[in-house]
Structures are given as structure tokens and as C-alpha cells.
Amino acid sequence: MQAAHVARHCTEPAAMISAIESTEKLLSITWADGHQSQFHTVWLRDNCSCSDCGDHSGGHRFFELGDMPETLANGVTYTKNALEITWQADGHVTTFDPAWLRAHCYSDRERARRQPRPVTWDATLTGQVPQIDYTKAQSDEAEQLKLYDSVKSHGICLVRNVPAHIDATEELASFIGYVRETHYGRIFEIVSTADPAVIANAPVPLRPHTDENFREPPPGIMVFHSIRASEDGGGASVMTDGFKLAEDFKTLYPEAFDLLTQVPIPHRRFIEHVGLRAEAPVIKLDYQGNICEFRLNERTMGPLDLPENLIEPVYDALSKMFSLSYESKYHMHHLLLDGEALVFDNARVLHARTGFNGHRHVRLTHVGRDEFYSRWRQVRSRLNGDINLI
């Protein structure tokens, strides 16, 4: 019963077994590069992917945790290319590729290596925004991967050489995910009008914000595609890293930071044929306490619905956060030229713009973060053999 974790073997020291010690509860592996991994036997049994147990990754799972034997003593043998465990409770055999085990080692060091922290930035990113060439990316997966990696690390990527016509907007969006349709349709046209229904279509400057926090979930990966830049040189995009804001805010106002990670802030959009409301904290933390999402928009906030003792402290925390987000030292500027696009993560990067007097036309659409990062994992796996993503 061979496990089907990976189809490749690795002869690098990091994936070569030097020694093994086994107890009923733990399997300790010393690798040729000196690193030690501790695998719990319950984890090893659960991750058997033989034909009888099925494979987690494809959802074809037959083994259930309720079937886990109470005693998991085992016999272990290994070679350069395989580790075989015979489970003494029932004689079941599990086979692992050492490269797969090393890639999934859950020691603190290896988990930190697999989850690099985002690269935070401020106004000094102006002129230094990660960028790709769209024409090249259409036939070169390495160039495409640069886009995915840039959005993952910096939250943003500039895409050059996109055709400056309307058909190219959905073409670019479909290149990185599936367009999400809303009451605005599949595309929102940002053009100046005499009596705009939304402020985005007024030629006025806008404060930094994340979009549509009144949705559940809000838009994920945003695409700003420039069809026509304003003749007066106005309408420059002003981008802000919410993770950098949150980091500095934590240092400046630790108690207010804690409030904004816990208290839900309501947002709403109630206009003709639309009644949207959602709430979430400004700052979301992951299991390890790292900042993983940031949502902020002063214009769409609804009335706070909180216990009386929290109203004033939360208003104070929000006021401090808005003031920080409006400081120019955090604002990266880029004037989108005809045929350029910005792709950025709306759960991290705030956007704004300067005022303008010309005939500016930018098209906005967005794709799901889940589908965007699904494609990132696929390309990374094909190009780099990142088997820990599988």
C-alpha cells in the first residue's frame, strides 16, 4: 500500500534521513543537514495516503479519525527514498517520501521558514513598486509568478503593457482569477461625471481606504486598469500598506491596537436596490498573533453597536488610526498611464487618489483571494517544486 504524497524524490541533504528514533507517541528524524523533526504518530497515521486511506489533498479521504487505534506503536524502516511504517495495531503499512515529510515538518523553525512575513512598506516605495510585463507574463510562467509573489509579499504589483482598451480588463482579471460580480456588475467604470452616484466618479481627491467593507466577504484582489490618464497629470493612485500602519499603531497605541483587533466595526451601503451590511475588526490576527488582514474605511462606517463602556475608547482608537493612515509618510504615489494596471490585495492595501480635472478613465474589477492564491500555489509547485504547498 504505497502512499501517494509526491512523485519526486530529493537527494538534497535537507530531505535525506540520517537517523530515526521511534516511540509509541513520536517519530524523531535526524536529517543529513543536522535538522531534527518530531512527528507525532497520530499525525503520521492520519496522513497515510495509500489507496485504502485516500488522499487529503483531493478530498478522497476514507480513513476517519474515529478509526484511529488507541495504541499506535509501530515498526519503522527507511531508505534514501522511502520511509515505511508498519502499524502494530492492525498491520497497516504507510509509506512516506522523505522529501514530503521534510517539507511538512512542523517544528517552529520550519513553520517559520514556510510562512515568511510580508514585506511592509511606506512612501519610499514610490518609484520602486514590484512590477511585471503583461505581454511577457502571458507566455512566461516565471513572469506570471512574479505577479503572484509580489502581491503575496508586498500586497501590490504594477502590471505594464496591458492593452489600453476595455476588453483587456476582464482578460487581465481572468488571467489571475475569476471575476466576482456584484450589484455594480463585473466592471466598475471610474470616470468623472457631472452628478455622480458614488464619490469615486467625482474628480476629487479621496482618502486612503479599503473597498466595500459592507460586503461579506469584501472584495479580494483588486485590479485597477487605466484606459486613459487625466490630461492634467492628476488622479494619481495613492497606496498605503495597512500592515505597516498596524505595526506602527501597535507600537504607538498598544491598548488601542488590542481594541481594533477585537471589536467589530460595522459598514453599510443602503441605496436603491442595495442593502448591504457587514462588520469585522479593523485588524485581523492569525493564530500566531501576526497581522493577516486590515480593513478601514471612514466613509462607509455605520453607527457603532457596542456596549456603552466601549463607545468612547473605540472612537478614540479609530480616530488615532484614521489620523495615522492619512499621514503622507505612508503614501506611495503612482500615476497610472494608459495601459497600466495595479493589482493589489484589498485585505491589506488601502487606496486613494489625488484630484484631477481631465478625462480620466480607470476600470475596476476584482477576483477572489482564494482563487488568486490557488493559482499562485499551482504555478509555484510547477516551477519550484514546492511540495509543502500540496
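Above is the first protein from milestone M3; the second protein from the same milestone is given next.
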Amino acid sequence: MARRSRRRTKGQSGLIAGAVGLGMLCIAILAGFAWMWSRSGRDQIDASTNCPLNGPTGLTAVLIDATDPISATTMADLKNEFRKGIGRVEPGGYVRIYTLNSDPGDLTVMFDGCNPGDGATVDSWTNNPARRQRKWENAFGDPLNKLPDQIPNADSASQSPIMAGIQKIKLSLFDSSLAKQGSAKRLVVASDMIEHTALYSQYRSGLDYQKYLNSAADRTYGTSLDGVNVTILYVDRAKKPFQSLDHAEFWTQWVQNHHGEFEKLVGLEGLN
């Protein structure tokens, strides 16, 4: 009877050990599924916009002033700065490129879409890096690489409504449903920054900020730039009635008075 009891105890121990092992295997499998599930939502994008499913991580707007011609040297430098700026847009970041026309608030959209991230930015466990690389090239990389060669460079227009253009971008993009609370907002303006409209002209008024405040332009084109970081790619012109440094100070004051963050002014090479 004693020997029979010991055999039964050994058999029971084997069953217990097997059950424990099976339990641990089940836990490992469940943990693996949980890990895969936790990662399955990452890197996923909306097929129609190429943006993350929960919206863009940030908004970048580029306004290119096409109301006056630009020299070959300055245009070459502008293209270099453009490509560097676009290269800093993070995966999931939304980009809209505009050109400024002579009618206040009239902008032409040259590009509109999110950076889906290239093949190196996705997890090979839950995504297809080769497919994402093709999507990035077709929808983002190649179009933006070719875009600088499509920048208009025509004769001088009758007006240069830069303030109205910035206001339009703020209302149509930075205040749109694409903007998430706390997400970065960047505005890059490539221009000689000489505001010239029927309401206010720096050719007529110079850079006296009080004259601008007394004009109808302040009330008509004024806009809140809360949370917007502003960079100017400055096109220098020989025939302007003021110094470039004073001009930079005017626009720094304008951005700050409209609650924006003036990040920097980059003087483009060449004289126009």
C-alpha cells in the first residue's frame, strides 16, 4: 500500500508540473499577443491623408512670395533652405505649401499632405517597411523634392499682401480641425517682406510701426499667431527705402505683437 501511494504521488507531481508549464506557456502567449496588440496601432496612417489615425503631430506652412521676381542666386539658396526645412518635418507632420498672389488672401496651394514616414520609421513586426518607403517616396519625398523647380518667378505684381496671406493661413490651417491642442505650428515665409497694398504700403509709409497701427491694414489683416513659430527666408532687394536690419525689426515686432514666436530670419544669398 505504501509503494502504491508513492507512485500516485509521483504521477500527481508530474501532472502538476505539466499544468504549471502549460499555464506559463499560455501566459507567455497571451503576453505576446498583448505586446503585438499594443504595437498594432503604432505607425498606422489614414490612407486618404497619410496622417496618423489620431491626426497630424504638427503643422508646417510655407508661404512663398510670388509677387516679385527672384534672381537665380537667391532662388538657388531658397531651394536649398526649402529642402532643409522640409527635411525637418517629423513623421506624421502635416505640410502645406502656398504661393502668395497679388489679391489679398488669394493663395495658391502647391502641396498639401502629411509625411507618412519612410520605411525606417515603421516597425517590421506590425508594418511593411518596403511598402511604407514607396508610399513616402510617391506621396511626400518625390513631390516635395521636385516642387522648388515649380516655384513661379514672374514679373512684379501690383500688390504684395503678405499680412493677408499670413492671416489666411492662420484661419484655414492653424485654426482648422487638423490642429491638435499642443501640437507644433510652424510658419515659414519666403519673401522680401515689403508689404504693399492699398491699405498700407511700406514703400509709402516706411517702417514707422505707428503708421502701420494707424492704417486700416492693422484692423483688416491683423490675426492671432498664438502658438505659431515664424521663420522668414529674407529676399534682399536693392531698391527699397529702408535698411534690411530695420525691416527685420519691424517684422519681429509685428509677429510678437500678434502673439507669435519669432524664431529667426535667414538672409538668402544674392541681391534682387
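Note on the second protein: Residues 2-40 form the longest helix (39 residues).
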